[in-house]
Amino acid sequence: xxxxxxxxxxxxxxxxxxxxxxxxxxxxxxxxxxxxxxxxxxxxxxxxxxxxxxxxxxxxxxxxxxxxxxxxxxxxxxxxxxxxxxxxxxxxxxxxxxxxxxxxxxxxxxxxxxxxxxxxxxxxxxxxxxxxxxxxxxxxxxxxxxxxxxxxxxxxxxxxxxxxxxxxxxxxxxxxxxxxxxxxxxxxxxxxxxxxxxxxxxxxxxxxxxxxxxxxxxxxxxxxxxxxxxxxxxxxxxxxxxxxxxxxxxxxxxxxxxxxxxxxxxxxxxxxxxxxxxxxxxxxxxxxxxxxxxxxxxxxxxxxxxxxxxxxxxxxxxxxxxxxxxxxxxxxxxx
Length: 335
Ligand code: UT7
Known about the structure:
Elements: E1 8-17, E2 21-24, H1 25-28, H2 36-43, E3 47-50, H3 58-72, E4 82-86, H4 97-104, E5 110-114, H5 120-133, E6 139-147, H6 157-160, E7 165-175, E8 182-189, E9 197-198, E10 201-207, E11 214-220, E12 224-225, H7 227-248, E13 258-261, H8 266-275, H9 287-290, H10 297-307, E14 316-323, E15 327-334
Parallel strand pairs: 4-5, 4-6, 13-14
Antiparallel strand pairs: 1-7, 2-3, 6-7, 8-15, 9-12, 10-11, 14-15
Bound molecules: oxa(dethia)-CoA (UT7).
């Protein structure tokens, strides 16, 4: 633990990874009763990437995204102090971050998983900022990765059409407080509505022949989502969260250059932008190619926007995630 002098923090590099297998809406309509027309008009999704190799796991995507970010930052993995893996689909319930730490050679890094579903990357970044601003660590790798194709019921057309697999990563570094690029953030949880979106654990009696001892064991079920309720929650809470962050940094919607929202549904992106009176040109959207990649969606969209030279120095970038929990959160960054 170092001094508690308040420092600034900055994203210095990003990376992303997607599986090579592509499933189009037309191919999806051979799996469940649906159509390209329904999926495109209700969600904006045209295709998604799925991890199909038995030997591959979320770790492969997370490692590849992390290595890309490290390379872009010209950083030796041994310089990473902390790895935060935001995921709801780890390859190991005890956590996958430590495997990633070993595989990328980040031998000096502490590593842990963080579960906040589709808000995971935002919560991960906010967590990283705390360690950087208090000068505890200098370099933090935040990864958002999910392989929800392994958790959806492939006979449930209301969910399986939505999700895709991916990983995105960002290296966040402490800097002088004058150059701090994190202008404000706000994260929220409302557990009252947790049942609207879940992968719940179902227990059944596991009989043991030891006296009256009763033990329950079970398994995780598939993704369940009350789509309409989650939709209403997203379009009502996300604009409020963004407005509250803007106010905290003495800014207005006119100051926003780019809106990088969780890529769940094109209609949600448009509705949020309309509520805030932000031009649709400022919305970063790539969900037509990848579907909803949960914790990976924001870093994947951010990484693509950077590769396409959309985001420039000093731009005001608003990042907002929302999803299961229910959780939601916003970060305002000066790039
Ligand atoms: O990442 C976490 C955050 N998640 C989200 O933000 C998701 C938010 N919710 C949504 O994006 C939308 O609610 C969905 C895209 C999931 C669903 O769109 P919707 O307009 O709310 O559709 P719905 O669930 O109300 O279903 C409308 C109809 C139903 O038929 P009936 O009852 O009207 O006869 C469904 O059975 O569409 C039917 N339907 C389908 N039809 C063809 C549901 N899924 C499909 C499908 N293909 N894949």
